[in-house]
Amino acid sequence: MREALLARPPAARCGPVWAAAVGKAAASMALGAADALGSSLERVLIVTKSGHLAPELPSLPGIEIHESAHPVPDERSLAAGRRLLQWLGEVPPAVSPLFLISGGASSLVEVLAPGVSLAQLEELSARWLAEGVAIAELNGRRARLSRIKGGRLAEELAGREALALFISDVPDDDPAVIGSGLLGPAAAGPDRIERQVIASIDHAMEGVAAAALQRGLTVECVRLRFAGEATRLAARFAHELLIGNTQVRVWGGESTVRLPPRPGHGGRNQHLALAACKLFAGYPDLSLLAAGTDGTDGPTEAAGGLVDADTCGRLALAGLDADDCLARADSGTALSAVGALVHTGPTGTNVADLVIGLKLPRAGT
Question: What is the pLDDT of residue 363?
Answer without folding.
Answer: 63
